[in-house]
């Protein structure tokens, strides 16, 4: 569990000025109004710092802070002040937690979160208050679908995207009968929807959709059920600590060499050290991979390893790109975050020079990006090919 554990414990250091406004802390004094030109830009991290997604939240914050540090600690000519809330990956607490950042701390931008269910609460609060929101992971389709908005941006993916890419790969390989297995919440369900759309369009059939509640890791009964169905393959969505456990349980049940296991890349990203031999050879699809050859990625990986004594993963990339996107907006308005229309316009038009490869945003503000087919080799998710080039989420229901 070494790599996974060290991520969980890694401190997100390098703050220019950090205010720890953790959830549950006693009432804070009223903060001054946001965005006064000349003052600091207030960035509110709403991320999981505890629970199965804790390592993901830390990696996102690390990536974000590293980009800011590379700019000398300023974006748009202004220093950055950080605020933090641990969202615990708990959707029930999301509106209250987001309101703390928006109303109490009066942040200029909320950067959050990881969990799709929590994201729905943040989107609601951001829309009600016209607060800039940058989503650095959660894929919930609605955020760049029916709930899209001028102030809502994402630097990660929609849940539909990586699932769709794997559906295309397995459909093209001629597989016919697939069982899916996920946590029962938006990330799992929407990944399966994307997978099914592409896979069935190529003539395959999803014969059974299995699931268990998030963040339950009692996989045994479901693994037994999958084996009894004798599919050509299984497609899964799990991430963080749950992904570590699932991959190990799958191998321990003796299915690794019997039923091919595929997933969106969260299954093996940031988890390989803990998964060890159980993960070797697994194929996944994601918008990041090891072995990319662009210079941006090379420098990013060197800097990240030097700064945090860790190898970066997709979550660190998404955090880094969230800061890059904010920088594009802040530079365009010369640090005046009250010029919201100009800020949003510049962000919407930005081309982000990401370690994953450059990307632009769709009209709904979701990355249009390449999805890689990767294969686990040692401690790496090595790129095999581009599974789908410049894949755009369909943004169904978005009126922007
Ligand atoms: C989600 O809830 O959207 C999510 C969580 C972890 C990895 C990927 C997606």
TrEMBL record:
The keyword Plastid does not apply. PROSITE patterns: TAT. Pfam families: Peripla_BP_6 (PF13458). Residues 40-377 form the Leucine-binding protein domain. It comes from Cupriavidus necator (strain ATCC 17699 / DSM 428 / KCTC 22496 / NCIMB 10442 / H16 / Stanier 337). This is ABC transporter permease. Keywords: Signal. It comes from the Bacteria.
């Amino acid at each position: 569990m070494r790599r996974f554990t060290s991520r969980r414990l890694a401190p997100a250091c390098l703050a220019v000025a950090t205010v720890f406004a953790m959830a549950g802390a006693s009432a804070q004094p009223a903060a001054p109004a946001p965005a006064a030109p000349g003052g600091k830009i207030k960035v509110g991290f709403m991320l999981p710092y505890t629970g199965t997604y804790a390592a993901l939240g830390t990696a996102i914050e690390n990536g974000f802070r590293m980009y800011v540090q590379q700019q000398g600690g300023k974006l748009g000519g202004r220093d950055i002040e950080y605020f933090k809330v641990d969202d615990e990956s708990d959707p029930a607490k999301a509106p209250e937690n987001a309101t703390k950042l928006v109303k109490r701390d009066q942040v200029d931008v909320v950067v959050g979160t990881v969990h799709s269910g929590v994201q729905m609460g943040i989107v609601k609060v951001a829309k009600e208050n016209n607060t800039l929101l940058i989503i650095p992971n959660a894929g919930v389709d609605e955020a760049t679908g029916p709930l899209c908005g001028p102030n809502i941006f994402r630097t990660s993916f929609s849940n539909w995207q990586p699932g769709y890419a794997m559906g295309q790969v397995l459909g093209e390989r001629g597989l016919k009968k697939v069982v899916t297995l996920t946590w029962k919440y938006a990330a799992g369900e929407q990944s399966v929807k994307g997978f099914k759309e592409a896979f069935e369009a190529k003539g395959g059939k999803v014969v059974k959709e299995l699931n268990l509640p998030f963040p339950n890791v009692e996989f045994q009964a479901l693994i037994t059920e999958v084996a009894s169905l004798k599919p050509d393959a299984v497609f899964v969505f799990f991430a963080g600590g749950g992904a570590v456990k699932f991959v190990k349980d799958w191998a321990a049940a003796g299915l690794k060499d019997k039923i091919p296991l595929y997933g969106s890349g969260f299954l093996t990203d940031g988890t390989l050290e803990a998964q060890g031999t159980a993960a070797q050879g697994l194929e996944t699809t994601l918008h990041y991979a090891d072995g990319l050859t662009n210079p941006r990625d090379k420098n990013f990986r060197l800097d990240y390893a030097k700064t945090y004594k860790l190898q970066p993963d997709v979550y660190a990339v998404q955090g880094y790109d969230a800061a890059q996107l904010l920088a594009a907006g802040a530079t365009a308005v010369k640090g005046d975050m009250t010029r919201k229309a100009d800020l949003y316009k510049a962000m919407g038009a930005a081309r982000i020079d990401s370690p994953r490869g450059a990307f632009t945003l769709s009209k709904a503000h979701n990355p249009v990006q390449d999805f890689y087919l990767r294969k686990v080799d040692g401690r790496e998710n090595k790129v095999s090919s581009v599974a789908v080039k410049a894949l755009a989420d369909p943004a169904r229901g978005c009126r922007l």
